[in-house]
Write a structure and sequence with these properties.
Carbamate kinase, eight-stranded mixed β-sheet, two-stranded antiparallel sheet, binds adenosine-5'-diphosphate, binds N-acetyl-L-glutamyl 5-phosphate, ATP binding, Acetylglutamate kinase, acetylglutamate kinase activity, nucleotide-binding
């Protein structure tokens, strides 16, 4: 397989419901031309809604969900169940084939507790990704759709931020590109009283923008994951809105869409 043709795409929970059928049709067209997408998805808003409905309290520390055993049950149910299957169904409707799994299946995503686990509970960071499983699914002409949970050797499951999980999958697979699909057209910066999309940003500019507060909230784990994976084999990470026409093809080929994060 030509590894240049593989890419990882992270679909954020902020935008999943808004992704038009044209987005999935484009995904099918890409697969037909020999490109091999790997999808890692989020679902933060759906988890929060379900927790509220069930009357389970939770909060966030540093952008990560405080994850008790009860929260973990809901995270797994929503991400590996409802959201994962919704994406698989939509891809199926477009005429392509998808196979959904979570990072727990086959030990796909090995994880360990994050450093501040005493504060935020069962939140994991990725220690390894079993690329063979993903490659096997791609070899069968299915698009892998991965829910961001992880597991350790003792069988403990963890909740992993979806941007972090996607970055780790991209690094371990050795793809050249990661596309992050979210609800904004890229990284925005206020200039002359106007907020505009930055075409390209470097690692150094990202650090400045976090320090100045220009990048905040949900954008922080995205740029952090991007910075981490472009230290390795990944050449660039593109942050885009999923509702722009032809967004995937433009992100992969022509350019002129979203924000490209590059080494320097
Ligand atoms: N500089 C920035 N440019 C664009 N969006 C930003 C920026 N800083 C913070 N954000 C916020 O990040 C959000 C995207 O992150 P998030 O809501 O976690 O989405 P997702 O569910 O796709 O991961 C945007 O909707 C916006 O509110
Ligand atoms: C540890 C942690 O915070 N996990 C996230 C996993 C889902 C996610 O990241 O979804 P988005 O991409 O839609 O934000 C959570 O529980 O919300």
């Amino acid at each position: 397989m030509d590894t240049n043709q593989r890419f990882v795409m992270k679909c954020g929970g902020s935008t999943l419901a808004a992704l038009p059928q044209a987005f999935f049709a484009e995904l099918r067209a890409l697969q037909e031309r020999g490109t091999r997408p790997v999808i890692v998805h989020g679902g933060g808003p759906a988890i929060s809604e379900t927790l509220t409905r069930l009357g389970i309290e939770s909060g966030f520390v540093g952008g990560l969900r405080v994850t008790t055993e009860a929260v973990l049950d809901v995270v797994e149910m929503v991400l590996a169940g409802r959201i994962n299957k919704e994406i698989v169904r939509k891809i199926g409707q477009s005429g392509a084939r998808a196979l959904g799994l979570s990072g727990v299946d086959g030990g796909l995503i090995a994880a360990r507790p994050v450093a501040n686990a005493d504060e935020i509970g069962y939140v994991g960071e990725v220690t390894a990704v079993n690329a063979e499983i993903i490659e096997g699914i791609m070899a069968m002409q299915y698009i892998p759709v991965i829910a961001p949970l992880g597991i350790d050797q003792a069988g403990q499951r963890y909740n992993i931020n979806a941007d972090t999980a996607a970055g780790a999958v991209a690094s371990h697979l050795g793809v050249e590109r990661m596309i992050v699909v979210t609800d904004v057209p890229g990284i925005l910066k206020e200039e002359g009283g106007e907020r505009r999309v930055l075409e390209t940003v470097t690692v150094a500019q990202i650090e400045e923008m976090i320090a100045s507060g220009d990048i905040y909230g949900g954008m922080i784990p995205k740029v952090r994951a991007a910075v981490q994976c472009i230290q390795g084999q990944v050449r660039e990470v593109v942050i885009v809105s999923g509702t722009e026409p032809g967004v995937l093809t433009r992100a992969l080929d022509a350019g002129g869409v979203g924000t490209r994060i590059v080494r320097a």
